[in-house]
């Protein structure tokens, strides 16, 4: 299905965005610099309560909306 240019996602340089990285939870015990850089996250960080996280149906709705906007690659982390 072609994406209409008026509704496609694009960055500030006009490049179409076709990939989405979605973090399923906000905590990780690895503390790697990729998703938890030391200058932005410390050991005292407050994490979301389980009730505040998206459930599977909400994640599916979100992903389907991004697919409708042209996302073709999804990375779950």
Helix-strand pattern: EHE
Segments where pLDDT lies below 50 for 5+ residues?
A: none
The main sheet comes to: 2 strands, parallel
Question: How many separate helices?
Answer: 1
Helix percent reads: 10-25%
Helix-strand category: alpha+beta
Beta-strand residue fraction? 5-15%
N- to C-terminal distance: 27 Å
What is the strand arrangement across the widest sheet? Answer: 1-2
Shape verdict: globular
How many strand elements? 2
Using only C-alpha atoms, the radius of gyration works out to: 16 Å
The pLDDT mean sits at 80
Topology:
Elements: E1 19-22, H1 56-68, E2 73-76
Parallel strand pairs: 1-2
Describe the protein's architecture and organization.
This protein has one helix and two strands; from the N terminus they run βαβ. A two-stranded parallel ribbon has the order 1-2.
Features:
77 residues, alpha+beta, two-stranded parallel ribbon, 1 helix, 2 strands, globular
Can you give me a brief rundown of this structure?
With 77 residues, the chain is of the alpha+beta class. The chain contains one helix and two strands; from the N terminus they run βαβ.
């Amino acid at each position: 299905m072609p994406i209409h240019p008026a509704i496609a996602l694009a960055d500030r340089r006009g490049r179409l965005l076709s990939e989405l990285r979605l973090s399923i939870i906000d905590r990780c015990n690895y503390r790697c610099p990729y998703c938890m850089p030391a200058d932005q996250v410390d050991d005292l960080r407050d994490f979301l309560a389980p009730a505040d996280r998206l459930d599977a149906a909400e994640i599916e709705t979100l992903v389907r909306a991004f697919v409708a906007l042209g996302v073709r690659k999804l990375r779950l982390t």
